[in-house]
Amino acid sequence: MKLGSLKEGGRDGTLIVVSRDLSRAVRADAIAPTLQRALEDWNNAAPRLNALSEQLNAGDAAEAFDLDPAQLAAPLPRAYEFVDGSAYLPHVERVRRARGAEVPESFYTDPLMYQATSAGFLGPRDPVRVVDAAYGIDLEAELVVITDDVPMAATPAQAAAHIQLVGLVNDVSLRNLIPGELAKGFGFLQSKPRSALSPVFVTPDELGEAWREQKVHLPLVTHVNGVWFGAPEAGVDMQFDFAQLIAHAAKTRPLSAGTIVGSGTIANQDTSKGASCFAEKRTVETLETGKPVTPFLSFGDSVRIEMLDKAGHSIFGAIDQKIERQSAAG
User: Fold this and answer.
1) pLDDT tens track for 195-247
2) What is the number of other CB atoms lying within 10 angstroms of the CB of residue 59?
3) pTM, whole model, 2 decimals?
4) DSSP state string for 237-261
5) What's the rounded Cα separation, in Å, for the pair 214 and 139?
6) 214 and 222 Cβ atoms separated by less than 8 Å
């Protein structure tokens, strides 16, 4: 099934079930008012939501309506936790090589991960607003999984059973603020504004054979200003699968239902597949020519991130955003 949230009903939106072709929807608030509430009672809510999904896709759902993506908030407009990994080592290796640094051996056995911004997510058509383009505005096209309650110290095999939904994120980064923050040795803060989520999250069974080994085996396609930017294969060169990422996050604490776990920027060894962020593209340019050529995003630019199934149908809908100036006063 496919689930989303309308921009109504408060900060957490109103839960809807969305048709497989993303054209129709039906409110599911009689089952759970929000997706967060559904995840907190997943064993009870999921069968009922799935039954409603079957009715909707059969054309039998009462009060179904045509879906306008502009109506959609993020599926989880806010989450208790968003932990973002960096599971694609080609990305890590290139970025470090470009600045003359080696990849520590531990990176191949112990995932990179940080606590990301989760108090609010942009909807799939909401603009990315930044005060100053000099901050170095970048997209990061990633996959995410959403869990129910995960116990502390869960093994990867145990963690796999807690993956309930899959989606996309544009993990917005302000690249020119990152070096100064990381130099303090205390992680990201100002360099990581709010991210945007895909129009819908889907249960892994919606992915069919593309979901295996706790990975999604499809390309993630990004366009910038209508021009192809990249389509790296998400199932290739992923050093740590989603179950391993969840287990890493849960090593010393339980994870609450509704936790979002990110894959990190999708990247392949094969650079002909393009990039999922400007930092990656600029790094490849630096390694090839000695300096970056492509600038970061500017006000007025547009970003589109989408994943298609083997038949060419959109799975999650598209994150389709404009970059806009935000006044310092808000």
Assistant:
1) 999 999 999 999 999 999 999 999 999 999 999 999 999 999 999 999 999 99
2) 9
3) 0.97
4) SBSS-HHHHHHHHTSSS-B-TT-EE
5) 24
6) no
